[in-house]
Amino acid sequence: MATFDSRTxxxxxxxxxxxxxxxxxxxxxHGPRIFSYGAHHLIGLLLDLRxxxxxxxxxxxxxINADRASVTTxxxxxxxxxxxxxxxxxxxxxxxxxxxxADQEVIWLPGLTPRENMARLRKVYPAVAxxxxxxxxxxxxxxESLQTA
Length: 149
Description:
Shape: globular
Distance between the termini: 47 Å
Strand order of the largest sheet: 3-4-5-6-7
Radius of gyration: 16 Å
Structural class: alpha/beta
Order of helices and strands: EHEEEEEHEHHH
Number of helices: 5
Largest sheet: 5 strands, mixed
């Protein structure tokens, strides 16, 4: 696994490049999940809404863990949230409580339809699901108006 400073690890996670860790291993990611000091503390989860966009575009959204943590983990969480906002837009980054525990409830399952996955998310984080659907509806509306112009 490639080794970088913590801010670069956060940026690489947001860009979904090769799995990486920081110099002392306290911040690392595998795919869409980024952890601080082990798998017991998930600080960010990156999910994809591509299946909802009838125009085939991709839109990612990010869940950031709002649970209290050590000074170091709080700093790492700030870097992760900042990198996600820069890469995917601040309107697509949501800070939520209990992300580590909710991880299996909100992760997209490949065998389910997008609507079924959104329903799973809505059970855990209804306000996030509402905001995502609103953001996506605006994006689809903009795309449709550009195509008719």
